[in-house]
Structure formats: C-alpha cells, structure tokens
Amino acid sequence: MQSRTNNLKCTIKIMLSYVVLITISTQLYAQEIIEETIKDTIATNIDTTAVSVDSLQLAKDPVVQPFQRLKVDGVAAVIGEHVILDSDIDIAYKQLISEGVSAKDVSRCELAGSLFENKLYAHHAVQDSIEVRDAEVNSMVDQQLSYMTNELGSVEKVLRFYKKDNLDDFKKELFEINKSNRLSEQMRSKIIEDIEITPEEIREFFDDIPEDERPLFGTEIELAQIVIEPKIPQEEEDKVIDRLNQFREDIVEKGSSFATKAVLYSQDPGSKSTGGKYTLDRQTNFAKEFKDVAFSLQEGEVSEPFKTDFGWHIVKVDKIRGEEIDVRHILLTPDVTSESVKEAKRVIDSVRTSIVSKSIEFKEAARKFSDEKETREDGGQLINPTTGDTHFELTKIDPILYDQVSKLKTNEVSLIIPDQDRQGRKKFKLITVLNRYDEHIADYSKDYLKIQELALRKKQIDAIRKWQSEKIMDTYIKINGEYRECEYSGNWLKKEK
Q1: CA angle (328 as vertex; 324, 333 as ends), nearest 5
Q2: Tell me, what's the pLDDT at 432?
Q3: Are 392 and 406 in contact (CB under 8 A)?
Q4: Element (H, E) at 294
Q5: In the 3-class helix/strand/coil scheme, how is 318-341 assigned residue by residue?
Q6: What is the DSSP letter of 271?
Q7: DSSP label at 35?
C-alpha cells in the first residue's frame, strides 16, 4: 500500500508539472479573423521563438539590453536531428520569470528536460510520418510577424532586434520552429488518442488516494447570461460596403496597392501590419464564408465585398500553390449608433425588470431575447472552456467575471453589465448564478466527472512516460556541459539501472 501511495504522489506531482509547463508555452498568436477552438490541453510548446511581451518591451527601451541576445550559443543537447542551444533554455527560463513564476519554483534542469521531451516528440513524429500542413504553419508565422511588428513598430525593427539580415530568412527560421512545435503536439496526441478509462479503473484510482490526501475542490458555480447587442443600422452597413467597393475600384481599375490599402484601412489587427496577408488551405480554421470566397478566385483577382461574423471583407488572391493560397484581405466593421446603443440599454433594462419581478424565468428570457447564439438555446448557460462542463471554480475564473458574480446569491440577477464585442462595439449583459457548490473534499459520487478526468490524465501520463522511456533508448541523444549534472525524470543520460 505504501508503494502504491508513493506512486500516486509521484503521479500527481508529474501531473502538476505538466500544468506548469502548459502555462509557460511561448507560442504567441496574433488575433485571427476567427476565434480558434482551444484543443489538446496536454501539449507543451517551450521552444526557441524568443517572442514575449517582456522581451519585445526590452527592444523598445534603448537603455535596457535584451536578455543574452549577444551571447554566442553553446549546444546544450542534441536529440535525434534537433539541436538545443543554451539560449533556448535561457529564453524559456526568462519567460517564466516574466510571467511572475518564482525562480525558486522551476530550475534550469527542469526547463532543459522539458525541451528535451519536446524535441524527442518532434523527432519521432517525423519517423512516424506525421504531417503538418505548410499552410497551417505559414499562417502561424504570419500571425507571429504581425504581433512582433505591432509591438516593435516596423518589420525593420523586428529584424534588427533578432539580428536577421532579411525577412525571408527570418520567416524560414520561424517556419521550422513552429513546424517542430506542431509535430511535437501531434506526436503527444497520437500517443494518448486511443486511451480510455473504465469505471473500475476510476474507482481503483480514487480508492488508492488516502483519505487525508484526497483533493480539495474549491467553490464552484454554474452561470447563465443574457446578452443584448445594439443593432447595426442598414445605413452603417451600406457605408462600409460602399467604401470597400471604392477600395476595389482603386485597386482593380487604377492600380492601387491592395497591401497599402490594408495597412492604412483594414480593421483586422492580425493582418493589418503585413498588408492583410494570410496563407491558408481548405482545412485552415477560418470563417467558412471567407474560405468559400477566397478559393473561388483566380490568382490576382479581387472579390466583391462579402460578410462574415467579423464584418465586411474584400479579398485578393496573391498566389495559388496547389491546395494552398496566399491571400490579402481588408476588413471593415460597421459601427453602431448612439440611438441603437440607447435602445439596447432600454431592452436589457426591461428584461431585467421582468426577471426580477418574476414575470419571466431567466432561462426563458435568454431563449427569447439574448443575442448570443452560442448560449441562447441552452437558456444562456455558460460552458467552461477549460473543462467542457458547466462548472466554474470560483477562484479560477477570469478576474473580471469573478467581480461580477462572486457576491451573487443563487438565482439572483446581476445589475446591467457593459461589455464589448470582438470589434470593440458596446453590448450589455445580465448574469445569474444557477447553482453554487461549496468547497469540499473529493467525493466519489458527487465529483465523479472530476475524478474520471484525473484518472484518465494519470493513465495518459503513464502511457507518455512508457513511450518516452522506450524512445530515449532508441534515439541518438547527447547531453553537454552542466546539463549532464541534472537529475531528470527521464533517462536522458542513458544510465544503466
């Protein structure tokens, strides 16, 4: 029993370390024209992009010098065909500190070990013929460059900061980094994709936890909301369409530069600085209407104005490469008027009065009046994007949302809350607490789904650990310098046991 308890403690510690690694991922994506669905909570992407708000801020400050950018790199390790430099570990360590993690909580050895794992996954993803679409990687590179350019002010400043001679070489380097990251993610997903957990295994997992060590689940709440958005008058829509038609005429008939128009006028922050450019194929996670139009055009052709949930666009196809295309677009979003904002405020005030006076139930009001189509049919009930269920742990929710709901009693309706949509336009909402679950020690019957998740995660981690142990022995690995003195969870030094 003591051995099983020790194993369980080790497992929980590993699970927590995975959570820490997830939070220090250095992938930075500028805003796309659509919202991506976040998947794969196991993936860890510590790598060599060296892109962080903190490091870019250093570049803006002429007094502060960037962290070790002038250091001549040594090779910390070689994993298969991948080389890990000392600077890669420096960057990952600095990223942690910039995010507020205490230096004493994570060592350089732990960071090195996580980088070794990342490269091991990427190496074997290639061996297992896992493919990553170039269009997907190119889109990520475009977004990163947009982010860097917005932070530093120009492409030239980005190149100077990263000491690159030209944009093409820098993009090739970013391409390889992002491709390696995606290969690593997909290899991890492949290892655990077929793993399932039975009720017997869940019960055994729970019974193996000593009663005095069972997890404490914090206070949780279930929430619903009603959203009222000001209506956009048709005349505002017409203004945007007319303006895009004028842009199109200037480009097609007068030879104006599409890229210049995008830089000057597009309201898409994810592509504005790069002249509206995106690379995509039919699997790229963009709005369907956008892809339908883009893939209907010939090379060099400019579309008529068309609408998505994000506003009105025109698109030009720069280049067609088989199933992959380079496009540029200009996005304009029609604005609301002061009159429509006042009307939306009047409507939500009336809805709140009806709910408080019990003339209508909150869920019924949501189905009847709410403009948020994602939640309307479920009576406004919110889904936790992290867990996929309806429970929100009070201490872990967004601080703004916490301020709005922490003092609400069950079934109490909030005051009217001003908010903004993705384009920065005003909207209003009401929130209610449907249920509240007080802090408690894990209970098998009440917390079955959470215990199931923990048991499944343990089984997945065991599978990853087993795969890693086998692949380390089958892979060329060389660890150099100070990193040979570290103690790792994996047998990276291939010591005989």
Answers
A1: 130
A2: 96
A3: no
A4: helix 288-294
A5: EEEECCEEEEEEEEECCCCCHHHH
A6: T
A7: P
DSSP string for residues in 337-383: -HHHHHHHHHHHHHHHHHHHTTSS-HHHHHHHH---HHHHTTTTB--
Whole-number Å distance between alpha carbons of 11 and 465: 10
Nearest to 339 by CA among 230, 238, 240: 230
Unique residue bearing structure tokens 């009001």: 365
Task: Read off the pTM.
Answer: 0.60
CB atoms within 10 A of CB 434: 17
| Contact of 298 with 257, CB cutoff 8 Å | no
Question: Residue 8 — pLDDT band, cuts 50, 70, 90?
Answer: very low
**Residue 96 pLDDT greater than 80, yes or no:** no
Enter the tokens of residue 401: 């949302």
- Assess contact for 308 and 333: CB atoms under 8 A: no
Distance CA 201, CA 219 (A): 27
Minimal CA–CA distance to 314: which of 244, 378, 367? 244
Residue 362 tokens read as: 């909150």
Helices 199-207 and 448-474 sit at what angle, rounded to 10 degrees? Answer: 90
> How far apart are the two ends of the chain, measured CA to CA in Å?
24
The answer to whether the CB of 188 falls within 8 A of the CB of 22 is: no
Residues 6+ apart with CB under 8 A from 141: 171, 174, 175, 178
* Residues 270 and 31: beta-carbon distance below 8 Å: yes
Q: How many CA atoms lie within 13 A of 54 on its CB side?
A: 13
What pLDDT, in 10s, does the model give residues 340-366?
999 999 999 999 999 999 999 999 999
Give the integer Cα–Cα distance in Å for 408 and 410.
7
Rounded to 5 degrees, what angle do the CA atoms 333, 336, 339 make?
Answer: 170
Residue 22, pLDDT above cutoff 50: no
